[in-house]
Amino acid sequence: MSETQNTDLMTLTRYVLEAQHSHPQASGDLTLLISAIQVGCKFVESCVRKARLINLVGVAGAINVQGEDQKKLDVISNDIFINAMTASHKISSMVSEEVEKLILVRDDMKGKYCVTFDPLDGSSNIDAGVNVGTIFGIFRAKSDIEEENYTVPGNEIIVGGYCMYGSSCNFVLSLGNNMVDGFTLDPSLGEFILTHPNMRIPRRGNIFSVNEGNASYFDEATRKYIHSLKHPDPKSGVKPYAARYIGSMVADVHRTLLYGGVFAYPADSKNARGKLRTLYEGFPMAFIVEQAGGKASTGAKRVLDIVPTHIHDRCPVFLGGIDDIEDVERFFSEYKHSLSPEFRN
């Protein structure tokens, strides 16, 4: 007997509208902004899917603010999101990984939100067909001096999300209230459908995700912690953790969110402040993981307690289940002397 077709689908648009209706004071501006981001994600997904066919693979011939070769899809994805969010008339300014300076909006198009985003995380792997994604965070614009809206602690973020482009297109969103929900794009409808309601990260997993190619640069705390995962005390009865590392933050965090364990991109002797960007990688992903019942730490402090001083600041990141990240913090407390001074407290 065939399954009955579900005719009462919870689309992303319906989901955000219902969230709006649950707050009588809501103006609907945030709903429209998220809708604009959703459209941008669909546009980028289409470009990623057809990239090889329409010659969008390879480098664009420019270097971004991070000193990285810009891929053709980096440039296109960045333009897509800037245009989509600007047209919503709901943002005051934006910060993008691909743009050195703050992205300002004309006065007649300004809204009351600020958005930080990485338009195409993992794009260095795009030519190999590896999953890539978009990461975004939304903040309220509280100052008329736009730069001041980004030198605030991460706990002021109000929405965090990412969209992963791969064998399926997955949109994961948190509006706060300890809720994270996942949606999958139905190509036949052109809509994101709720498929992963109330995502919760296990307190402890059995997978660790870190680029061990950098192991010789790790500080002592990181080395000792990773060794403990690979070589647990035989008397404890604990099995070694499995290693899984894709090299795309969106894909690695998505797996960690589903199955638990630890995603790590620590500081090291090459990158004393860490490699991931605080505003548009660290904060949104930390927010999502915390809202899903997990924990996000630099090893010494909560990621969302960081106060960036520049829009492209970086930070060390350990994301995962509560028990796993508390293990990380115990190692960092024990080997505090090995850390860079700025991350000891």
From TrEMBL:
Ranges for domain Fructose-1-6-bisphosphatase class 1 C-terminal: 201-331
Keywords per UniProt: Carbohydrate metabolism, Hydrolase, Magnesium, Metal-binding
InterPro entries for this protein: FBPase_C_dom, FBPase_class-1, FBPase_N, FBPtase, Fructose_bisphosphatase_AS
Pathway: Carbohydrate biosynthesis
Signal peptide: none
Superkingdom classification of source: Eukaryota
GO biological process terms held by the UniProt record: fructose 1,6-bisphosphate metabolic process; fructose 6-phosphate metabolic process; fructose metabolic process; gluconeogenesis; sucrose biosynthetic process
Cofactor: Mg(2+)
Annotated family: Belongs to the FBPase class 1 family.
Protein name per Swiss-Prot or TrEMBL: Fructose-1,6-bisphosphatase
Source organism of the structure: Furculomyces boomerangus
